[in-house]
Structure formats: C-alpha cells, structure tokens
Design goal:
Belongs to the NAD(P)-dependent epimerase/dehydratase family. GDP-mannose 4,6-dehydratase subfamily. InterPro entries: GDP_Man_deHydtase (IPR006368), NAD(P)-bd_dom (IPR016040), NAD(P)-bd_dom_sf (IPR036291). GO terms for molecular function: GDP-mannose 4,6-dehydratase activity. Its cofactor is NADP(+). The protein is of the alpha/beta class and about 325 residues long. The protein has two domains: about 200 residues, 3-Layer(aba) Sandwich (Rossmann fold); about 90 residues, UDP-galactose 4-epimerase, domain 1. Helix content is about 45%, strand content about 15%. The chain is built from twelve helices and 13 strands. The strands form four sheets. Strands 3-2-1-4-5-6-11 form a seven-stranded parallel beta sheet, with helices on both faces. A two-stranded parallel ribbon has the order 7-10. Strands 8-13 form a two-stranded parallel sheet. The longest helix is centred in the N-terminal third of the chain and has 22 residues. The chain binds guanosine-5'-diphosphate-rhamnose. The site of guanosine-5'-diphosphate-rhamnose has 22 residues, from α7.
Length: about 325
Amino acid sequence: MTTKSALITGVTGQDGAYLAQLLLEKGYRVVGLAPRRSSTDTNLARLEWLGVADKVELMDGDLTDLASLIRCVQFADPDEVYNLGAQSFVKTSWDQPILTGQATGLGAVNMLEALRIAKPNARFYQASTSEMYGLIQEPMQSETTPFYPRSPYAAAKLYAHWMTVNYRESFDMFACSGILFNHESPLRGLEFVTRKVTDGVARIKLGLANELRLGNIDAKRDWGHARDYVKAMWLMLQQDEADDFVIATGHTTTVRDMCRIAFDAAGLEMDKHLVIDPAFFRPAEVDVLLGNAGKAREKLAWEPETSLESMIQEMYKADFERLSTQSK
Ligand code: GDR
C-alpha cells in the first residue's frame, strides 16, 4: 500500500471514475477536479456506480481557470496528476471549436503551468488520443506515425500532446502522453457510438423504441475497455523515465459489425431496426484507426484483457438492466 496522492481532472467522466477506483484500491489519496457551473450539476453517477463517490475528495475547478488549478494542486499536493478533463465529443468540436481549444488544448497547458508553479516534481499524464492520427499516414499507427488531425478536437489534442512533450524536454518535468485508442464501458457517455448502440438496442428489446439511427457505419475503430486502459495510464507514471505510449488492442472493426454484436446479444435482427441518418455524419471523418501497442507491451508489460465482443455484451446487459428497472 502507498500513501501517494493523485489529482485527476475529469474525475466524473468514464476514465476518471475507473482510474479513481484503481488508485483507491492501490491506497492512493484521490483528489478529483470537477467543473461546476451550478450547485447541482456535478454528476457523480459514474463514481457512485463504481462505489467510490464518497472516497474521492472533490474540488470545484476548471481547466480553463489557471487559478483554480493552482489551488487544487496546493490542496492535493499530488505525486501524480492525470489530465483526463476535456471537451471530448468529436462532433461537438465543430460547433464549439473555440471552447474545445480552450478546454482540450489550453486546458492541458494550464495544468502543466499549475504544476510548474506549484509542484514541478509531480508526475503528469496527458490523455492524448488516436484521433490525432486522423487521416492515417500508416496502416497501423504507433508512436512514430505522423499525425494528421481531422477535427477541431483532434487539433486541440495535438497541441496539448506536443506541449506535454515540450514541457518534458524544456523543464525536465516527468510528463507522459498516452495515445489511447477508443475505449468504452457501461460508463461511456450516451453520445458516443458504442454506448448509443447498446442503450438503443436495449430500448428496442424492451419495446421503448423501434429504431436505432446512426451515421457512418463503415467507420472502423480499434475499441478496447476503459478498465484495461486506465491501468496503462498508471503504469506510464511508474516508469523510470517519462515517455509516450500507444494503447490499443491491435484489432479494428466497423461500426456496423460492432452494432451487430449488440443486436445479436439482444436476439434481434439488426436490419429491421437500423436506420442511417445523415444528421450523424461529420464534416470530416476519420475512416479507420488501428493501433500498434507493441511499445506498451514491451516496456509496460501492458496487455488489453477484454475483447470487443465481451465488452459490448457487458454494456448491453448493463443498459438492459438499468432500463428495465426504470421502466417498471
Ligand atoms: P470517436 O468516437 O469520434 O472515435 O472519438 P465516437 O464513438 O463518437 O465515434 C466513432 C465512430 O462512429 C461513427 N458513428 C457515430 N458516432 C456517434 N457518436 N454517433 C452516431 O450516431 C454514429 N454513427 C456512426 C463516427 O462517425 C465515428 O467514425 C472517441 C472520443 O471518446 C474521443 O474523445 C477520443 O479521443 C477517441 O474516441 C479516441
């Protein structure tokens, strides 16, 4: 057991909740930063679902407010800082490009500055993303593949990524960047495609809906489980040297085939319910992503443990159970 202290931004999100659970199990003190714009809008549902809501010390604060970050760093006195907060929905980033740049791009720099000012020897993890590869330059993407961002979100994340590298090289800070491919779970937000599918299929099964409307079902993603991926975040900060790592499964699947797994789990015919709706197409698409996590396997001894099939089944089951209780 350890008595280390960790500060997590975005603690109320999917990854924040799983990471908080992991660190609490390891004996960390966990301080979480949650943006709050009214007295009631901090959503603790994910932390509650994992049974850790009362164990995380929550601080009001926002990545766009440097002073609040400095205060959080002073309060947490962290050994490790995980920057998971962002405007993270790719499609929204075309409608709110400036907010996305401020929270997702400059937000990371605010956190790095807060550490530089108040706790320069803390270890820092930046949530980088496979979206930075965008229009892919190599069939399998690794740490050395050139980037080609295809959305305001991806461009903001790329800025944060290079600033993390820059702070490591300029100020000798222990700053790591995890280039995580898509990762999902029952705690995924309903706007992302896997959860939209498992929730939508469960609704159809329960007679609460009749169709599921999706956009580009030919898009291919390398999908893993968030529970597995947060372990990689922690491992990165336990190494002797700070570095960047791709975290992925090495398998890619179309949205259509992922969707079929959910319909099969429900014993329903996909063709009877799936409707293609242009409203869900994006101004520019990332057609295919496929990650090579060889470096993480070798240096971190990290392996993904959950298959896409079992993850989608787990998500479908959780949605079915939640909706059955609600509709009684
Ligand atoms: P993504 O995730 O953009 O890859 O980014 P998302 O699940 O939103 O989209 C995946 C692919 O599915 C296609 N798609 C749809 N997507 C949504 N959301 N809704 C639909 O109805 C739909 N129909 C088809 C999309 O076009 C896309 O190709 C996620 C986010 O979590 C990022 O923050 C993170 O950085 C990356 O994963 C890794």
